Amino acid sequence: MTRDPAPSDFATSASTTLESATSASTLLDSATLVRALIAAQFPHWADLPVEAVDVSGTANAVHRLGDDKAVRLPRTEGSAADVAKEHRWLPRLAPRLPVPVPVPLAQGVPAEGFPRAWSVCTWIEGANPTPGDGTWAPELFAADLAEFVLALRRIDATDGPPAYRSEALASRDAKTRKVMAELDGVLDAGAATAAWDKALTAPAFTGAPVWVHGDLQPGNVLVADGRLTGVIDFACMGLADPAVDLIAAWYLLPAGAREAFRTAVEADDASWERGRGWALSIAVMELAAYRESNPVMARNAWWVIGEILAE
Questions:
Q1: Taking the chain, what is the end-to-end CA distance rounded to the nearest angstrom?
Q2: What is the gyration radius of the CA atoms in the chain, in angstroms?
């Protein structure tokens, strides 16, 4: 998951001993810690091998457990709060989606060495896509993405929680403009502001909110042979304007495949413009937060901003 960045999203340095209950990245990435947690709370899995997974996201450290499981350790209290939500809702959503998503298998509790709730879920094979990769057929990938988005929207929204990004796009105006101004000289702040102004002219969403993933970015999508093989990290999921998931058009697709995606999801002019606005707002905030600390996140943000300003 990629929340709108804040200083608290960054892991701080601290001791790497199991006795130290801290959010240090070195501790969260420790296979020793995961083995200890598994042995104490789920001993029937204690003999399975544990391998750290290199992820660019800022919310969780991920380890592979055996061949078919993943352990996710939240890096922040905010991310830990999402564990219960995923355990409640993903079993309901997963059977109705066209590609595999992580199914919760066990929910860990805070323990000596790790101070937060954590989870074990199913492992899904695949690799994160690279924005702009032209070595595969993006039209097929666009069709896969559209099928996923539409399937999610069709799921009964009764009692569903609000998505992390469930607010109106216009409510992000002040913060987005502030970040763009701070990035003046790093990017073309005038062009970015003009694109943002255009997005805000789109009529606001007034329909019934639908299920959205809420964070369809490269780090949360898995591909193989150019096709969508899985969608992961549903911490931002919930009910919202369907335009939120249209960020996939700019985060995941080259310009030539966007129209096919738009047609498949039946996005009207207003929702498409709001989707572009969501993508731009999220990207500039990520660029401001991660351009010196997380090269992968910064690269993705640059890609999105460049694609939007080129349109």
A1: 27
A2: 19
- pLDDT-derived band at 104 (thresholds 50, 70, 90) equals very high
**CB atoms < 10 A from the CB of 181, how many?**
11
**How many angstroms separate the Cα of 294 from the Cα of each of 56, 159, 180, 187, 237?**
7, 36, 19, 18, 24
pLDDT tens profile 29-59: 589 999 999 999 999 999 999 999 987 777 8
Cβ(200)–Cβ(169) below 8 Å = yes
* Among 305, 309, 276, residue whose Cα is nearest residue 288: 305
> Is there a contact between 120 and 65 (Cβ–Cβ < 8 Å)?
yes
* Amino acid (1-letter code) at residue 110: P
CA angle, residues 233, 164, 85, in degrees to nearest 5 = 55
Q: Alpha-carbon torsion 127, 83, 244, 154, what sign?
A: positive
- CA–CA gap between residue 192 and residue 242 (Å, rounded): 23
As a whole number of angstroms, the distance between CA 65 and CA 13 comes to: 25
**Any long-range contacts for 32-36 (C-beta under 8 Å, 24+ apart)?**
33/73, 33/113, 33/114, 34/63, 34/65, 34/71, 34/73, 36/113
Task: Please state, in angstroms and rounded to a whole number, the distance separating the CA atoms of residues 61 and 53.
Answer: 8
Say which amino acid occupies 179.
Answer: V
Query: How far is Cα 280 from Cα 22, in angstroms, rounded to an integer?
Result: 33
Q: What are phi and psi of 256, to 5 degrees?
A: -65, -20
**CA of 22: how far to CAs of 2, 18, 110, in Å?**
21, 9, 12
* Residue 72: exposure state from Cβ atoms within 10 A (0-12, 13-18, ≥19): buried
**pLDDT tens-digit map of 249-292:** 999 999 999 999 999 999 999 999 999 999 999 999 999 999 99
Using a 10 angstrom Cβ sphere, with 0-12 exposed, 13-18 middle and 19 or more buried, the burial of residue 150 is middle
Q: Which 3 state secondary structure label does DSSP give 155?
A: coil
